[in-house]
Amino acid sequence: MTATQSKPAAAGETRTLTLIQAITEAMHEELARDERVVVFGEDVGARGGVFLATAGLQASFGKHRVFDTPLSEASIVGAAVGMAVRGMRPIAEIQFADYMGPGFDQIISQAAKIRYRSGGQFTAPLVIRTPSGGGVKGGHHHSQSPESYFAHTPGLKVVMPSTPYDAKGLLKAAVRGGDPVIYFEPKRLYRAAKGEVPAGDYTVEIGKGAVRREGSDLTLIGYGGVMPDVERAAQALAAEGVQAEVIDLRSLVPWDRELVLESVSKTGRAVLVSEAPRTANFMGEVAYVIQEQLFDGLLSPVMQVAGFDTPYPYVQDKVYLPGPNRIAAACVQALNY
């Protein structure tokens, strides 16, 4: 327990945390707040997880509430579903998002559908945390961005924060909600993203985006690990006299259509950024809604900057990921259309 956790927080008190520290703190506070909360997964106990996101939790709350599991994602998710249906609030960790495949049926056929299949008699309020995305040279099996699979599944909520403030607030909201939540953690931001986080209790509403930078010439939209590069691209454009409005979706299901449409109706141009492969990318849905609702007011086609339709490369992160240069180039294309 940190010093800030061991005493009541002063009104308005904040601390500078990394993204992973904010995630750890959220779990610590939820374990302390609600005895129904349990945390489990591969190596999450004594070791604290492969990225140490759960470090210290077992020492604070015991092996009956923070514990290791076998190397079986299907079992991890299946246990989480069973616990949630029986009234608990499980937080299950899948060690890497790439490993969610073995638990896929449990997620989409059980967790996502139990409320509907039972006519509302049962629910599965669980959280599946998983490190996602590239930027750490993890290669084909440790760098994928599979959020579109889960965004396509009715009954699931899907979130991906990019700041410590959002990471803590969204995770606490997910634990307290009534639905299964897939909580993607952009691993390249674990220790790179730092920000002020309130010491007191708070949540961030799932389904609401955030304006990171106001502008009038075009709208840049992203989420998760790409957000630092999106903001760098906006800064570079500002140096050339172009004011880009930057929106962080934070939540993919549901996503903040009202915020996006309000911004794009003002600027007339939209550039959508994510690191998942281009084909069937979630941002394609955002692009469709923009053109469906704002077609007559658009000044250029909606542009998308994404990863490539290949397995994630081992050593070519900077080529695969949509960095500031690729983002800015798409913005220039939209401006010159």
From TrEMBL:
Which top EC class is named for this enzyme in its record? oxidoreductase
Q: Which organism is it from?
A: Deinococcus budaensis
Q: Which Gene3D superfamilies match?
A: 3.40.50.920, 3.40.50.970
Note the subunit structure: Heterotetramer of two alpha and two beta chains. Directly associated with ODBA in the E1 complex.
TM segment ranges: none
Q: Which cofactor does it need?
A: thiamine diphosphate
The name this protein carries in UniProt is 3-methyl-2-oxobutanoate dehydrogenase (2-methylpropanoyl-transferring)
Q: Which InterPro entries match?
A: THDP-binding, Transketo_C/PFOR_II, Transketolase-like_Pyr-bd, Transketolase_C
Name the domain of life this protein comes from.
Bacteria
Annotated ranges, domain Transketolase-like pyrimidine-binding: 17-192
